[in-house]
Amino acid sequence: MKDELAKRLVQGLKEAGINFVTYLPETRLSQIVPLIRDDPEMELVAVSSEQEAVTIAVGATLGGKQAAVYMENTGIYVSSYSLLVTGKQLGVPILLVVGFLGGVPDQRNSFLYATIGNHTIPVLQGLGIEYQLLENGERLEARIKDAVRAANALRAPYALLFAGEFSE
Amino acid sequence: MIRHECLELLAKRVSDQLIVTSQSGQRIEWSHLSKHEGNLLVGMMGCAIGVATGLALALPHRKVIALDSDGSVLLSLFNLATLGNLQPKNLVIYVFDNGVYSGSRISYPTATSGNADLEAMARGAGIKNAQTIRTVEEFNKHGIGALTRNELAFFVCKVEESLLHREIPRPNTDLAENKYTFVRYLERTEEKTIPFVGRG
Hints:
The complex is a heterodimer. Chain A is an alpha/beta fold. Helices cover 45% and strands 17% of the residues of chain A. Chain A contains seven helices and six strands; from the N terminus they run αβαβαβααβαβαβ. In chain A, strand 1, helix 2 and strand 2 form a beta-alpha-beta unit. Chain A is globular. Chain B is α/β, with parallel strands linked by helices. Chain B has a single domain, classed as Thiamin diphosphate (ThDP)-binding fold, Pyr/PP domains (Rossmann fold). Chain B is 38% helix and 17% strand. Chain B has a six-stranded parallel β-sheet with strand order 2-1-3-4-8-7, sandwiched between helices. Chain B is globular, with a radius of gyration of 16 Å. The mean pLDDT of chain B is 95. At the A-B interface, strand 2, helix 3, helix 5 and helix 7 of A face helix 3, helix 5 and helix 8 of B.
């Protein structure tokens, strides 16, 4: 991902009100981590599993933060239980910022990732989690803002899957 | 020592703390003992410590309590490593360790009935104030005492298996009702709007 796109992604999160981010880093979007870390208006929380990335973000949301979780799409599988019971069942909005490895638009796709990518959208659909696929920076800030608004309105997690230019 | 004895002591000390419970008999016992609006009765195992950690980070001036069980903590051991690094000073965790999966109705043993030691795991993860409690007196002195200190605390409360919760009426508030009571209480006591609640 070009540095400019990473900056716009983080700025888009800020403009959408995101002020608390839990994360387990991955390869495609990792440039956003130091940008969030160095921003005094955003709190960045490193975790050991995507399962707790979700539960910690849910707790922060209940405590008044507008929270996001940054993870690889493998994290959707790892955290599916907590997404279901704390995100969906309890009804708490969090934004999922997901590096979409192995999807068709993943510019670094290979046999290592294709199976992972192939099942991501069906799993999100199975969990009843709404999502958007982003392949370029067109209307990036607006799409992030739309996603946060939708999450709050739905009282549920909402996923943004980043591939295409974001995976270059 | 049984769990209910500890919870009775704790209920007497609740004022404005936020209490997150895991799924297990403790959820039923706590909801019976405490009608505090700051109770969040998370309905499933393996999630309470994470949710409590998020609350503690979002509201660092507010004491947050997590009530959990051995089976539940064993599902989410990664929480210990994360807490060992985050060190939220306003979080107190009580793990009621009866050594069995009581809800299984066959009291199948958990790993803590064998060689697993949750206190040692927590210490190894960097939680300095991790302690095993075996008597009600110790719970009152150390466990309740932690509520007035400004330090992350992790108590493994070794309790006998008790089926008292099966004689107590289960809470009749559903998860959404409980969530809204909780966030409205926070809005009132924090004098701020919780963003996601929004207005129709």
